[in-house]
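pls design
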């Protein structure tokens, strides 16, 4: 299974929302409280921001493939297709 950056961002946002609601509901956190993240959390937040700032795809590769497909020059060998299918079957069988 491939998880995109958008899905990762959505999961983190949903987790934060649920965690916040649970904390408020249990009385652990009042709505006016503040939070100071640790150095590790700040570093992780900065790293997350850097990763999600990049595009979800490689523009040069996408453009090259688009030109090949539109020009009728895109070719994938049978061996590559079979390898990919077998690889996915092996991963699926492991779960």
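designed seq:
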């Amino acid at each position: 299974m491939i998880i995109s950056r958008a899905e990762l961002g959505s999961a983190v946002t949903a987790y934060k929302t649920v965690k916040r609601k649970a904390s408020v509901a249990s009385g652990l956190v009042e709505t006016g409280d503040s939070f100071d993240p640790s150095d590790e959390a700040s570093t992780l937040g900065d790293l997350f921001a850097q990763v999600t700032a990049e595009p979800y795809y490689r523009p040069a590769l996408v453009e090259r493939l688009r030109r090949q497909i539109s020009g009728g020059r895109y070719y994938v060998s049978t061996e590559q297709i079979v390898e990919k299918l077998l690889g996915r079957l092996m991963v699926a069988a492991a779960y």
